[in-house]
Amino acid sequence: VFRAEKGSLALVVDDDHQARQALASVLERWGYEVIATRSAEEASSCEQELERLDLVVSDLSLPGDSGLTLL
């Protein structure tokens, strides 16, 4: 079973609530601290956390800015 290193941070971006919650739940079980947002704009507002991300999981087709803008 995979376990993330202690303190690992993941960002989940998806406008679909159920998908966002499911992904966040799995990542938390794997040991990640998770930030879950519904848009690229919302994710971008977490500036300090973005600097220490270990993993990004994003829907590419989001309303507004696409998931690619986060990369």
Can you describe what's shown?
There is one protein chain. By secondary structure, this protein is of the alpha/beta class. The protein has three helices and three strands. A three-stranded parallel beta sheet has the order 2-1-3. α1 (17-29) links the parallel β1 (9-13) and β2. The relative contact order is 0.28. The model has no long low-confidence stretch (mean pLDDT 92).
Which terms would index this structure?
three-stranded parallel sheet; 71 residues; alpha/beta; 3 helices
Q: What's the rounded overall pLDDT mean? A: 92
* Strand order across the largest sheet: 2-1-3
Please give the number of β-strands.
3
Order of helices and strands: EHEHHE
Quickly count the helices.
Answer: 3
* Terminal residue distance: 28 Å
The Rg value, from CA coordinates, equals 12 Å
- Give the low-pLDDT segments: none
**What portion of residues belong to β-strands?**
15-25%
Largest sheet: 3 strands, parallel
Class computed from helices, strands and strand pairing:
alpha/beta
Quaternary: single chain
User: What fraction, in percent, of the residue positions are helical?
Assistant: 25-40%
Outline type: globular
